[in-house]
Amino acid sequence: MSTLRHSEIAGVGHYVPSRVVTNADLTQLMETTEEWIQERTGIQERRWFEEGKDTTANMGAAASRKALEAAGLTPDDVQMIVFATLSPDYFFPGSGVLLQRELGIQAPIPAFDVRNQCSGFVYALSMADQFVRTGMYDTVLVVGSEIHSSGLDKTTRGRGVSVIFGDGAGAAVLRPSTREGHGILSTHLHAQGEFAEELIVKEPGSNREGRVDYAVANALDMYPYMNGQNVFKHAVVRFPQVIKEALDQNGYQPQDIDLLIPHQANLRITQFVQQKMGLSDDKVFSNIQRYGNTTAASVPIALSEALQEGRIQRGDLVCLAAFGSGFTWASALIKW
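Given the sequence above, the corresponding structure tokens read:
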């Protein structure tokens, strides 16, 4: 085994479906208003997939091709795939192997899925980082991709959840860092399973006989349920904690952050965290207004857009952070 080394993000990319769904569009499906949605979430529009065109795997592949191109690599250079999603194409196998097929990777490389919902990409990034740090692999593809819109209750009954979520994919390529003190400095992962049912899709579950018939008979349990007040209460505590944990481990203060990229859960949560950390507007990246909450895809989509917009420069201190179902939460501190 080689000595530990740092990994760095060599390239990122993202893909979002072309179908734009505005708040005004949602008023045609349920009793709501543009003002009600924006006041509670900050969202103005989101993307929904097109059946027959978009899949969780091929959206991930589109994002991956862009990330590989940015890194100056090809799919044949990939040595491992880590795929974060709560909306896989199939119950099994996972979408990681489907991505391998989509990219035309013939080598029998490892590919696995990570099921950590909103924290999924940061969890996956941390796992990939360990493989690169230990020298087991040199090129790891990390992907977050989601199709929520096909599983939402698009009626007034489900509006509290359905107005929030969107579809999309983001990807990052990890490589060994060639610069001392740069790359992924540390990652921090946490979970608190006692709150598992506060944000959940219960069915189809495997813990009963005749699970398919049961799921059909209890179809409403196949839609997401969220205790919004409790999720918000925990999110605004855990976000600052896990960001501070990363800063403390590496000897930094909040004012040293050049850009915070939080999971795009709710604009009110992001604004609360920003105020708590004492960060100015130019140090926090938000795109939930355009895409809604894309769960495991939200951090890599935001990271990709931040780079495209020139919000991240070489040498910047970038913090990624996420909180979501589980409850799970995580952060990664990166010297770009």
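Residues 7-176 form a domain with the Peroxisomal Thiolase; Chain A, domain 1 fold (CATH 3.40.47.10). Try to locate this feature in the token string yourself.
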